[in-house]
Design brief:
single chain, 291 residues, five-stranded parallel sheet, three-stranded antiparallel sheet, 10 helices, 12 strands
Length: 291
């Protein structure tokens, strides 16, 4: 019997709930820790970014309109599906360019799954912590309620490729935001596998859009897009951060970045209900009291 050829996985972008190649038709090589070729990832374009933002904007109302309890159920379902594919995720992380061994990759995968569960639990609770009844001098009820800001652009940190992505994405979507994610440039494969998990987890099409490619090409059109309401530049280098912040200022887009403590991705500081608050607006309601 002749030895069969391996069936290699094809990695695509995730836009509007569909797995797509770039409209430009380009790809780029993804190299492993040992210098071996792992795959050719899609090299996204400016138009891919615009398409992803349009998909996120279309999905935002429906996602925010779901009950908080239902969003928590869906985030928990993401963790369930990831748990069933733990070995695959660990292999993707281990093969990435950060050179971690399989034990460290397995630990990162477990931490990423646990982080989804953690934020799923906050879905119907964070509003109570971040909002409430305000004491005012007058015959009024005064209530503050956190609401999703809208469409959030996320520049995911390069390494490690999975846990930082989950740590920045989960607090964005749990409140009802939608996201356009620029995956790790050096290690995008785990992000694409995460997209496959999202597609199987009842996440509405367009809620999470994941684009792979070159940061220098993709960050500028995301930063200056008028339909992006908040921009997380945690994965940008210093020059990209400065340029992105300047572009975002032109459209009054809120710019957020992970603190040094939050960048200790496995630590407790990397998960907090106040990270959810960073991607919310606070609505204050005044209502007269009856006599």
């Amino acid at each position: 019997m002749t030895e069969r050829l391996a069936v290699n996985k094809t990695y695509k972008q995730f836009i509007g709930g569909a797995f797509e190649r770039s409209e430009s038709g380009r790809s780029y090589p993804v190299v492993g820790a040992g210098g071996e070729l792992l795959a050719h990832a899609v090299q996204g374009s400016r138009k891919d970014v615009r398409d992803a933002v349009a998909a996120a904007r279309s999905a935002q109302g429906g996602w925010a309109g779901r009950t908080a309890y239902n969003r928590g159920q869906i985030l928990y379902r993401v963790a369930e599906v990831m748990e069933s594919r733990r070995d695959e995720f660990a292999a993707e992380v281990a093969r990435a360019g950060d050179g971690c061994d399989h034990s460290a990759a397995a630990a990162e995968t477990a931490a990423a799954i646990d982080r989804w569960v953690w934020y799923a639990g906050w879905a119907d609770k964070f509003a109570t912590v971040l909002g409430g009844v305000n004491p005012v001098a007058g015959p009024y009820f005064n209530l503050s309620v956190p609401e999703p800001v809208g469409v959030v652009g996320i520049v995911a940190p390069d390494e490690p490729p999975l846990l930082p992505l989950v740590s920045r994405l989960a607090p964005v979507i749990v409140s009802g935001n939608t996201a356009v994610v620029l995956a790790s440039e050096r290690g995008p494969l785990a992000a694409v596998t995460l997209a496959e998990t999202l597609a199987l987890s009842d996440v509405l099409a367009g809620v999470v859009n994941i684009i792979t490619g070159r940061r220098d090409e993709l960050v500028p059109p995301l930063a200056d897009h008028a339909a992006v309401d908040s921009l997380d530049i945690s994965g940008c280098d210093s020059q990209q951060s400065a340029n992105a912040a300047r572009q975002a200022a032109a459209t009054i887009t809120r710019v957020v970045s992970a603190s040094a403590a939050e960048q200790q991705w496995a630590a407790e500081a990397a998960q907090s209900p106040y990270l959810i608050d960073a991607f919310c607006e606070t609505k204050t309601v005044w209502h007269p009291k009856g006599r």
